[in-house]
From TrEMBL:
It holds the Pfam family Dala_Dala_lig_C. Its EC number is 6.3.2.4. This is D-alanine--D-alanine ligase. Keywords: ATP-binding, Cell shape, Cell wall biogenesis/degradation, Cytoplasm, Ligase, Nucleotide-binding, Peptidoglycan synthesis. It is found in: Cytoplasm. The keyword Heme does not apply. It catalyses: 2 D-alanine + ATP = D-alanyl-D-alanine + ADP + phosphate + H(+). Cell wall formation. Belongs to the D-alanine--D-alanine ligase family. Residues 111-310 form the ATP-grasp domain. It comes from Aliiglaciecola litoralis. Pathway: Cell wall biogenesis; peptidoglycan biosynthesis. GO terms for molecular function: ligase activity. SUPFAM superfamilies: Glutathione synthetase ATP-binding domain-like, PreATP-grasp domain.
Amino acid sequence: MNKMTTDKAVQFGKVAVMFGGHSAEREVSLRSGNAVLDALQSVGIDAHGFDPADQPISQLVEQRFDRVMIMLHGKGGEDGSLQGALQLLKIPYTGSGVLGSALAMDKVRTKQIWQTLGLPTAKYQIAEKRSFDAGSCEVIMRDLGDIVMVKPAQEGSSIGMTKATSATQLETAIQDAFKYDSTVLLEQFIQGPEYTVTILNGEALPSIRMSTPRTFYDYAAKYHSDSTEYFCPSGLSADEESMLGSLSTSAFLAVDGSGWGRVDLMRDQQGQFYLLEANTVPGMTEKSLVPMAAKQAGMSFAELAVAILQTSVR
């Protein structure tokens, strides 16, 4: 082991790479976690896999872990609950804190904050399971336009999302989304390409533009389809790239994001960007966007994993 890897091993101590869990994103989390675990071990870091579905997090103390690299996507890992538990256990962890994690996980409150700050985000409405009236779907379609995106407020990886083009479809989509969350975001569909920007230690990495022949960039397009295309560089001019990076960084900070994360956006036919959501524990699989942006910035996967782990050193 060379001096650089020895220094890293000493700096970080015993690391738990936490992945798996109980959320609807368990499959993706397992893939992200295992990829990161292999990368950290490859540079000499004393990293170990830890699945909270198999053992209580109190084992982190009993097994004398020095810090946690959070690779848990979705509820229970990305929503502030794990971050709060780790703070009570006095164990350092990667990424955003309790407030930033909770806010970014909630698409509705994220949009409300961005809207209040004057940051561009698509027109929207909210459906609550306890008070939803199917008869309101016609009015919602008139207000939001011919196409409406239906999203559970607190799910990731496009789980439970549907594109509705009629009041009948909208009602069905909302009822389906209620299976995942009692609050559902109804968002005006922005016609145009989708972009994403990785934020790492306060800096924006090169943007990525995604293209899919599917109805939209859904779960299958993200993790299973071979027809999804990724463009990095994304084709923007230097000024547009700078503007997009600045907008994404501002949006991430607005919800108290810190350490690392990703901001997703759409661009309409007139060239206007609209913020979609912020992710505080983005995917780190072989098809994931953050490693792609890091590669364009000159970072290997292992270097990226170490940089993310570094965010646990507060």
